Input
Amino acid sequence: MKDLKAFKSYSLFAFFLMSLCVLLSNEVSAQDCSWNNIAIEGETLNLKSTQVVRYGTATQYVEKTVPSGTKCSNTVFGDPAPGAHKLCSICEDEAALSCWKIIAAEHQRLNLTGTQTVRFGTSTKYVEKEVPNGAKCNSATFGSDPAPGKRKQCSVCDGI
Output
């Protein structure tokens, strides 16, 4: 009986410590930074190194430390926003070397300032074209499908 009470006490203490660790790790990962969308759901992440990636929507997401080559998917991250289109993002500090930022998923309208150079495709297969504000992010607008069968997005370079 004495051993059972000791086991319960240690179990409660272990649970408390694990909960505290989870709270602290979430606090650290929720750092103040600007999150840069780097991939859409289903794509493979092309990272410089293992780093924290945010997966989900703007308001429903999870953060996980993953290596380059990880898939941006529910299988890896879980599903923080069932039924919603999800993106993978990294903290702006870690994304500073890339000027290309995702602005729309395939088939969405582009919200641009005037006419801009836009990339349409995946992170590794894409076409670039000057397009006006309001154009659609699709193969009809860009004249070709650079990655047939793959989810695509539109990106603009915001300059470094």
Notes: The chain has two domains: 35-97, 101-157. The helical segments are 2-29, 74-77, 92-95, 139-142.
